[in-house]
Structure formats: C-alpha cells, structure tokens
Write a structure and sequence with these properties.
Protein name: Acyl-CoA thioesterase
CATH topology: Thiol Ester Dehydrase, Chain A
Family: Belongs to the 4-hydroxybenzoyl-CoA thioesterase family.
Keywords: Hydrolase
Order of helices and strands: EHHEEEEEEH
Distance between the termini: 11 Å
CATH class: Alpha Beta
InterPro entries: 4-hydroxybenzoyl-CoA_TE, HB-CoA_thioesterase_AS, HotDog_dom_sf, Thioestr_dom, YbgC/YbaW
Number of helices: 3
CATH architecture: Roll
Strand content: 35-45%
CATH superfamily: Hotdog Thioesterase
Pfam families: 4HBT (PF03061)
Shape: elongated
C-alpha cells in the first residue's frame, strides 16, 4: 500500500456559521491529499498535463464521522491500495490534531488523453515511481 500524509489548518472561510467545516470542502481536502501523494513520488499534475494526461474524478465518496472545526489541524492520509490501470483509486482518512477520525473517503480518477479525450493507461513513469 502506497500512502502519504499532509496537514492543513481549517480556515474560517471553510466553515459554516457554527464553525463546522462545510461538507463540500472535503473534496478539496481529498484533492490536497492526492496532489501531495503524487508530489511525494516526484510527479505533479502539471507534469502529467504537460505530457498529455488529464485525471478527471469519476467517483467520490465521503463518510462523515466527526465534525472538523475552525482552526483544527487536519492530517489527510491518502492511500493507494492497488495498481492503477486506466483508473486510479484512492482512499482517504482525515484526522484532527487529537488523532480523532473525522472522515474517510474514496475517489476514482480516470487517465485521459488530453488530445483525444479518450481513456488511456496509467503512464509508465507513474508505474515506475510506484514500483509496479
């Protein structure tokens, strides 16, 4: 299992009137996790796009367990459990500064050729970075 963790502090603009993180922001937290997961392998979205690969999200799931609050420090842990092919699937755990599980999630992204807009296989350089 390949995993990476990144931290973020909840900003006021990410909360509702009660100081609770608005549910729509979790997709952005997951994106932060994916971006940093790729970066930990020496790959960036920018590099992938320059090489003609796009990664649209085709599925997103979030299970809310505990409210995240304004000024909490969240740790987003991103997991890759299986070899990517035409799709890449990530699992997530978000914990607060007290190590309490806030939410879990899953997203599936498809490798797309940016010129043809058709699905394509995972780039070899990413597979090599993953030791697959």
């Amino acid at each position: 299992m390949k995993k990476s963790s990144t931290k973020t502090r909840v900003r006021y603009s990410e909360t509702d009137q009660m100081g609770v993180v608005y549910h729509g922001n979790y997709a952005q937290f997951f994106e932060m996790g994916r971006t940093e997961w790729l970066r930990s392998l020496g790959v960036t979205y920018k590099d992938m796009e320059l090489s003609g690969i796009m990664l649209p999200v085709i599925s997103l799931k979030c299970n809310f367990i505990k409210s995240a609050l304004y000024d909490d420090v969240l740790t987003i842990t991103t997991f890759l459990k299986k070899k990517p092919m035409v799709k890449i699937e990530f699992d997530y755990e978000i914990k607060n500064q007290n190590e309490e599980l806030v939410c879990t999630g899953n997203s599936v992204l498809a490798f797309m050729n940016s010129k043809s807009m058709k699905p394509t296989k995972c780039p070899d350089y990413l597979l090599k970075s993953l030791d697959f």
